[in-house]
Amino acid sequence: MSSAEFDFTDHSHRRYNPLTDSWILVSPHRAKRPWLGQQETPSKPNAPAYDPKCFLCPGNDRATGGSNPKYETTYIFQNDYAAVKIDQPDLPLQPESSEKSLKDRLLKVEGVRGNCFVICFSPKHNVTIPQMSVPELTDVVGAWQTLYRDLSKEAAENNKPFKYLQIFENKGTAMGCSNLHPHGQAWCLEVVPSEVSQEFKTFHNYKHKHNTDLLGDYVKLELQEKSRIVLENDSFLVVVPYWAVWPFETMIVSKEKTPNVDHFTDKQKGDLASIMKELTVKYDNMFECSFPYSMGLHQAPLNASKEELDNSWFHMHFYPPLLRSATVRKFLVGFEMLGEPQRDLTAEQAAERLRKLDGKTHYLEKL
């Protein structure tokens, strides 16, 4: 056993993720190792404002027929290649048996219905969230809110199989984005997805044990410690979570308890738009490239019960893969797939680097 003093910036340790009841290995000394692995090709900002071949640009034909209106702000339409559908046959019922067979015990299946939507953030083909104005991004947040409300109403009044709305964005080809027109997606399922369901369980258990909200306490702690805070405004906090997996992973969390976008005030819509823009400008400025990420909203289910609302706290996860430069990407392989997630710099180190970056002026504006 070494007699040297433990250094969190140089020595291996594990950190607990209370949202998912899991652990992550932190190995900050590994950031010093040379890199001879795969390198990404950074995207170049040379796309036109309008692309006649793009299936998402205003007025263009879509892949399966029909055409887009000549929209001038955020535009939502039903996904032509939906991952889940409303109209499909019911899964055959399995015969009741007093003794479950191994197949019944181990090979479980259930049908799932729902609907999927594409959310075009802007009519301009050549912009991304950090290049949009705060009013334009406020329209995006407003569109999320409208979609949430409309689907809640459809479920309640028309018996549509809608329970949870997962809104997300995959930005950049490194994250599997198949069309670079600025857009996100919304998948609405009749069940709560596993990742969100696990968070609800931990929120419930934490509240039962401590009689307080997990994320409410976490916001309070981060405001006290400050070492992982990247940005802050009246309504939201951006932190690199203590338990972050991805190199520059962040979480936007509401300062006050707000269960979903349906409860947002106009002030919160504007504040979320503003802090999203500032965070993503920092991301792009990090390596002077269009910084890829997967981003998603976690919030209360549609038509949530009192208990579900009580266990919900609005937050957003940003999972960007870039590690050392615009070309070096973090992969979850080997130990991360077979053991547990691992990262090469601490959350505090990542937060400090993001905090120092300009969040107001995009690097392309300086060229």
Automatic annotation (TrEMBL):
Domain Galactose-1-phosphate uridyl transferase N-terminal: 5-193
Single GO cellular component term: cytoplasm
Pfam families: GalP_UDP_tr_C (PF02744), GalP_UDP_transf (PF01087)
Assigned EC number: 2.7.7.12
PROSITE patterns from the UniProt entry: GAL_P_UDP_TRANSF_I
Keyword Iron: yes
EC primary class: transferase
Residues involved in Zn(2+) binding: C54, C57, H125, H181
Entry's Gene Ontology BP terms: galactose catabolic process via UDP-galactose, Leloir pathway
Alphabetic keyword roster: Carbohydrate metabolism, Galactose metabolism, Iron, Metal-binding, Nucleotidyltransferase, Transferase, Zinc
Family the UniProt entry places it in: Belongs to the galactose-1-phosphate uridylyltransferase type 1 family.
NCBIfam families: galT_1, PRK11720.1
Protein name, UniProt field: Galactose-1-phosphate uridylyltransferase
